[in-house]
Amino acid sequence: MNTDASTKRPGGRSARVRAAVHSAAVALVSERGADQVTLPAVAERAGVNSSSLYRRWGTVAALLADIAKQRGDADAPPLVGDLRTDLENQAVWTLAELSRPGGIAFFRAEVAPDVDERRDGLRECLRRVSERFRSVLDTAREHGDATPPPPLEQVLDRIIAPLYFRVVFSIPGTDEAYVRELVSGLIGEPPLEP
Amino acid sequence: MNTDASTKRPGGRSARVRAAVHSAAVALVSERGADQVTLPAVAERAGVNSSSLYRRWGTVAALLADIAKQRGDADAPPLVGDLRTDLENQAVWTLAELSRPGGIAFFRAEVAPDVDERRDGLRECLRRVSERFRSVLDTAREHGDATPPPPLEQVLDRIIAPLYFRVVFSIPGTDEAYVRELVSGLIGEPPLEP
After folding, report:
1. PROSITE patterns, alphabetically (chains A, B) (predicted)?
2. Which of A83, A160, B14, B132 is most buried, taking the most CB atoms under 10 A from its CB?
């Protein structure tokens, strides 16, 4: 988190401006695609002066990174302590994040142009998804599940990578049932109901 | 393949211009990143008039798509008819393509901005990689290998998706040994040497 006015005075003018700018940016990205959004357009939609956007964020990429950071994992489903359930829940949530309008646009903004900011964006993106699934694995380990959790690297390769790939390339059939298949492929089929 | 002059008169002026423009574009993308390349800059580097680039390709994205198409899989390693060897060879080649300067830039160009062309670029990118691995599976099937080949979908999920993900996110240790691990993860460990 940064320590600008919005953090120091929650609910203050600065926080209201930030919220208005964030939601204007999200709306414009959904409507036009990330590559067609400019800071002046965001400023106009948010009803604020574009000079304050240039001062505070500097570029659209930095603004999108700020949105991604602030959104964070706040609305991710809570962990229940069962490896399969948590992997499925977090993976379904990750898929939904990637799939909704704006979600993949943010991912694309992170993958695409603009050298240094892209590198930071990618690092942040990978860090977030890694943290989310590291918590799943740590929690399962603490609960002493029958199945020992796989290494994080395997979760990235076997669950996250296919989801990203399939969303980026719009491969059909990438849904909750498919997520459950990926999880079963990694940790085995669930026991049959009695 | 298109049917423009370069195809009708191989080695003609049009083909020479195309080759010069392609190599200028590849060099500029490597130096600056795909987002910093313009048609006039490519024209200048190639020593041709930029109006002919606008006429022939229209946009940088279309030019990059043409390069990707023309490059195609011409220099991919030949199939030997053994499932493991062919999966490993094609996957190592795919990884090298993605990893070299320009390679990931082209992938990024395909993933990133510009709506309709992006969609076409992604479709083409997925088609190419799918074709390459479909041939591997068909050849293994014809050779009647002991191990029946997995479905193409599994090859995409278990080998290609992790490679793309790891190159995009610059995850270290993504090398030939790692490719062999992915292949063994999918079709089983190779038999021990006697």
Report:
1. HTH_TETR_2
2. A160
